[in-house]
Amino acid sequence: MQVGVFIPIGNNGWLVSTTSPQYIPSFDLNREVVQRAEQYGFDFALSMIKLHGFGGPSQYWDYNLESFTLMAGLAAVTSRIQLFASVAVLTMPAPLAARMSVTIDSISHGRFGLNIVTGWQMREYSQMGIWPGETHYLHRYDYCGEYVSILKELWADGRSDLKGEYFTMDDCRLLPKPQAHIPIICAAQSDRGTRFAAEYGDYNFCASLGVNEPMRVAHSVSRLVTATKEAGRTVPALLLTMVIADETDEAALARWGHYVDGTDFEALAYRDEQSTMDSNPDPYSTARRRLSHGSALLPCSHGVLVGSYAKVAHLLDEMATIPGVAGVMLTFDDFIKGVDTFGRHVQPLMASRAQVAAAA
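and the corresponding structure tokens:
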């Protein structure tokens, strides 16, 4: 099973809490996290793009770095780990995103990939005057289909003449071409989004929910497997999962309980208000609003594994058995300590990571 890290490009990571570790993102912090992840044999690191925080007492995600420039810097100080930036498609023309990707591909010697962000939080874009209106929710995957088609044409052929509903290319050129295939990651949950991932992606993040319930994600993965078969492609799933591991179950659960006690309900209310802007009746498109089982202090739809090193390793091995799963993208309460704990204590106990653990 592949293992990646969802690096802390935004303040306070992935816990919407006033009692979790509080920090401001910086290049130095992310460099330390990614270099340690590379040392322990992690396969990839991914940074999101977030343009407007949730506020609240924790000022959640009010501080953020920019994804492409961060990953360019990290490409220069790493040698093996694959690096994914995120592009908010409403903010950047596809040819520019393609050229920036090729630049980081050059810096990293072929270790770069791109995460496609369709845009669900209206305020990220309306603050800049570029929100296209509610119709974007209905057509965003058609928009992204053309966007990714342009990327792929430019990377493969060095030119694009795509004439679509949303984009018109006129002998658009891009040289040099990338040194290696630039994989596309999607993060779709709705049926329409899953079809988009099956048609255009190389991987898709599937929603993992709950605390210590790794198999709850199986249904989401099975929908992706079905969609990829219908598209005649293979697009494996990556599972977004928080890990809080300690020497004992009791110690890990005490940390988790402390964070839950500090849940920033004001920030979460802002998130929920933004998510209700999408009136899509597809039940899977509202995953952010259906968080439960104690994981409601997470900003987006991912589960939490809490327990001893052995317990967390066992739960991750369970996830690895789900047909269609290629790996997990991990978040931590404290990223530097979390990566060290995973690399030293959890990974060596995982049957699905035995070879990597031995090499690390």
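(Above: one complete record from the training split.) Confidence is low (pLDDT under 50) at residues 287-294.
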